[in-house]
C-alpha cells in the first residue's frame, strides 16, 4: 500500500514537471475511474489528456474573463431578445454574429441607439461568446479609454492596460458620444483606431448617429479620417425601441422602480 502511494506521488510529480498540472491533481480519481470501468490503456490515456486539456482551457478562460474587464453582471448573448426592439437587429443577424466570422475577418461592429436598448448587453454578450471560443477580448468605456491615453507613460497601470488592449482580437468600446473629448485626446483616439485597422475587430456602442460624431471628436476632418477606417470593414446596427430598463425595472438591482421611471419621465419632458 505504501509502495502504491509513493508510486502515485512519484508519477504525479513527474507529470507536473512536464507541465501536466491539471491531470496530475486528478490522477488518483482518474486511476480509480479506470479501474472501476475497466478502461484500456488507450482509454485511460485519452481521459488523462482530456482532463489536462479541459483544465488548461478553463484556466485560460478565467484569465481571459479577468483581463476583459467586463461590466458587473455581464449577460450571455442568448439572453438578449431582439423582439424587445422595434427594429435594428433580428434573431437571424444575432445568430450570424455569434458565428464570429467577423472577428476572423477583422471587421468592426457599430451599435447606435438611445440609452437602454441593449447595445452594451449585445457587445458584452458577444465578447463572452468570443472568449468561450478562444478569442482574446477587452472592454472599455470610451471615457476610461481616454483616461488611459492621458495617463499612458505616466502611470504604469495605464501603460500596461493599453498594451493588453492592443493585443486583443476584439476590442469593445462602450458609450462613444456621452463625453466630448479635446483635440489631443481625439488625435490619440484616431491613432489608436488606425493601429487597430485591419489588425483586430472593434465593437462600438454609441448614442450618437455617425453623422454627429464630429460633435464628439471636435474636428470634422479628423472625424472623416477616423470613420473612413472604422466603416471600411464594418456592420452598423441602428437600434430603435423603448428602453429595456423602463420595461424591466425589476431586473436592475439597486434601482428603485418609481424613482427611476419618474426621473426619466422628468428628463424626457424637459
Describe the structure.
The protein is of the alpha/beta class and 270 residues long. Helix content is 58%, strand content 10%. It folds into two domains: 2-66, no CATH class; 70-239, Rossmann fold (3-Layer(aba) Sandwich). The protein has helices at 2-17, 21-25, 27-36, 41-68, 91-98, 101-104, 119-132, 142-151, 156-167, 183-196, 213-217, 220-232, 244-247, 257-269, and strands at 108-112, 137-141, 170-176, 201-206, 234-238. Helix 8 packs across helix 9 (156-167) and helix 10 (183-196) packs parallel to helix 12. The chain starts with a helix and ends with a helix. 23% of the residues are buried.
Relevant terms:
elongated, alpha/beta, 5-stranded parallel beta sheet, 58% helix, disordered C terminus, Rossmann fold, 10% strand
Amino acid at each position: 500500500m505504501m509502495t502504491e502511494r509513493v508510486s502515485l506521488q512519484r508519477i504525479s510529480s513527474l507529470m507536473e514537471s512536464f507541465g501536466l498540472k491539471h491531470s496530475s491533481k486528478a490522477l488518483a480519481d482518474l486511476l480509480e475511474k479506470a479501474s472501476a470501468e475497466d478502461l484500456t490503456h488507450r482509454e485511460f490515456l485519452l481521459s488523462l489528456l482530456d482532463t489536462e486539456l479541459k483544465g488548461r482551457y478553463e484556466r485560460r478562460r478565467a484569465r481571459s474573463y479577468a483581463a476583459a474587464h467586463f461590466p458587473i453582471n455581464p449577460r450571455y448573448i442568448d439572453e438578449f431578445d431582439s423582439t424587445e426592439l422595434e427594429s435594428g437587429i433580428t434573431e437571424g443577424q444575432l445568430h450570424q454574429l455569434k458565428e464570429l466570422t467577423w472577428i476572423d475577418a477583422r471587421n468592426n461592429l457599430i451599435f447606435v441607439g438611445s440609452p437602454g436598448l441593449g447595445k452594451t448587453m449585445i457587445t458584452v454578450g458577444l465578447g463572452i461568446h468570443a472568449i468561450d471560443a478562444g478569442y482574446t477580448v477587452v472592454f472599455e468605456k470610451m471615457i476610461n479609454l481616454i483616461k488611459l491615453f492621458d495617463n499612458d507613460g505616466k502611470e504604469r497601470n495605464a501603460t500596461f492596460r493599453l498594451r493588453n488592449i492592443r493585443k486583443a482580437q476584439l476590442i469593445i468600446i462602450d458609450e462613444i458620444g456621452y463625453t466630448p473629448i479635446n483635440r489631443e485626446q481625439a488625435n490619440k483616439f484616431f491613432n489608436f483606431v488606425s493601429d487597430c485597422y485591419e489588425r483586430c475587430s472593434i465593437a462600438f456602442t454609441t448614442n450618437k448617429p455617425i453623422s454627429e460624431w464630429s460633435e464628439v471628436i471636435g474636428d470634422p476632418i479628423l472625424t472623416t479620417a477616423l470613420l473612413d477606417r472604422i466603416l471600411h470593414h464594418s456592420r452598423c446596427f441602428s437600434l430603435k425601441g423603448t428602453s429595456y430598463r423602463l420595461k424591466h425595472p425589476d431586473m436592475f438591482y439597486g434601482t428603485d422602480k418609481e424613482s427611476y421611471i419618474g426621473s426619466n419621465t422628468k428628463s424626457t419632458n424637459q
